[in-house]
Design a protein that fits this description.
By secondary structure, this protein is an alpha/beta fold. It has 2 domains: 164 residues, Rossmann fold (3-Layer(aba) Sandwich), CATH 3.40.50.1970; 191 residues, Dehydroquinate synthase-like - alpha domain (Dehydroquinate synthase-like, alpha domain). The protein contains 14 helices and 8 strands. The strands form 2 sheets. It has a 6-stranded parallel beta sheet, sandwiched between helices. Strands 6-7 form a two-stranded antiparallel ribbon. Strand 6 and strand 7 form a beta hairpin. Helix 5 crosses helix 9, helix 9 crosses helix 10 and helix 12 crosses helix 14. The longest helix is centred in the C-terminal third of the chain and has 31 residues. The chain is globular. 51% of the residues are buried. Bound molecules: fe (ii) ion.
Length: 375
């Protein structure tokens, strides 16, 4: 049996913030970071909620790569305000934080690391969730995953119940993204689609969404990087499609390597994913070169690997760990940690090629020097 899990409703288009009117609630806790306030997004959403007679409180303590401690700080705000609605505004960190606070708010008997996809949580007795992404990448608004950092490791938590009741893809909320963030998050989205397409858990639904997402991202991400608004809007929807795709299939070794690297060297998720994308594709091509050909054919891009290298160059992404300014000594002294964290990651489980510790170490080594994976 396969299950397809998606948000209850996805509103998209320039007036999609109005969809808030379809949600009944009395008290909304906005979960966000202070940059969103500076950009004016919090005011705009607060105004819209107030028009619908919903009282608003804001928790703007979301951290990049959110820690467990930041979750508990938000939980305290929720406990005293008692919302019946959580409104996450921001990138994946804000949305993952809101999902996790929501779970603990409804289930005070649980700890963060006890959230499991195998155990029903019984959410929605107290509150529901609206997600408004302001980056086009993580897909968190449409996935049932939460990534939280604890003791220097990424906890990859999941529950189908945390899928939002309403997702708002209003392109106006991504027009202020800085160029670097457009590139990093766009490549993250592209990687979600590619890994979902080659995972051993892939299925017809995830395939369909991956194909469309790759086609759109390969075509429009370079224009989006140059701040073309129409292209930014297209990539915003494609990133959400890629989120639904991997949430209903699985990520793979690229995310496993990136999660490990990002947690060890404190690098943002999208940047880490972009770094390991070409290495993971080369490694997996021994197992799924036919799938890569089909995907590239659907997207009309020739050879997938070559097209991606060109795209990464166009977006000024670093092509090796060395390019990021991490010294050889610093990197290789942490090799055992890098390998063990990657091998523990969910991305390893359904990757089309079963990686050994030794192979994983070799990929990390190749990625440092920018050497093409040839094994
Ligand atoms: Fe990702």
């Amino acid at each position: 049996m396969w299950l397809l899990s998606v948000p209850r409703m996805i509103a998209f288009g320039e007036d999609s913030l109005n969809a808030i009117a379809t949600i009944n609630g009395k008290k909304a806790l906005i979960v966000t970071d202070n940059i969103m306030r500076k950009l004016g997004y919090i005011n705009e959403v607060t105004k819209k909620l107030s028009e619908n007679k919903i009282e608003v409180e804001v928790f703007d303590g979301v951290e990049a790569e959110p820690s467990e401690e930041s979750i508990y700080r938000g939980l305290e705000v929720a406990k005293s305000f008692q919302p019946d609605l959580f409104v996450a505004i921001g990138g994946g960190s804000s949305i993952d934080t809101a999902k996790t606070i929501w779970v603990l708010y409804e289930r005070p008997d649980k700890r963060v690391d006890e959230i499991s996809p195998l155990e029903p949580l019984g959410l929605r007795k107290k509150a529901r969730l609206v997600a408004i992404p302001t980056t086009s990448g993580t897909g968190s608004e449409s996935t049932w995953a939460m990534v939280i950092t604890k003791d220097g490791k990424k906890l990859e938590l999941a529950s189908r119940e945390v899928l939002p009741d309403l997702v708002i893809l209003d392109p106006r909320f991504v027009y202020s993204m800085p160029k670097e963030l457009i590139a990093d998050t766009g490549i993250d989205a592209l990687t979600h689609a590619i890994e979902a397409y080659t995972s051993t858990w892939r299925n017809e639904y995830s395939d369909a969404l991956s194909e469309k997402a790759v086609e759109i991202i390969m075509k429009y991400l370079p224009k989006s990087y140059r701040m073309d608004k129409e292209a930014m809007e297209k990539v915003h929807y494609a990133a959400d499609m890629a989120g639904i795709a991997f949430s209903n299939s699985q990520i793979g070794i690229i995310h496993a390597l990136a999660h490990s690297f990002g947690a060890t060297f404190h690098k943002p998720h999208g940047r880490s994913v972009a770094l390991f994308l070409p290495y993971g594709i080369k490694y997996n091509s021994k197992a799924v070169s036919d799938r890569y050909k089909v995907l590239a054919g659907k997207a009309g891009i020739g050879d997938l690997y070559d097209a991606i290298i060109n795209l990464l160059r166009d977006l000024n992404e670093p092509l090796s760990v060395k390019d990021l300014g991490i010294t050889e000594e610093e990197y290789f002294s942490k090799m055992d940690e890098l390998v063990s964290k990657a091998m523990e990651s969910t991305g390893i489980v359904a990757n089309p090629r079963m990686a050994s510790d030794e192979e994983c170490k070799k990929i990390f080594e190749y990625a440092y020097y920018g050497k093409e994976v040839d094994f």
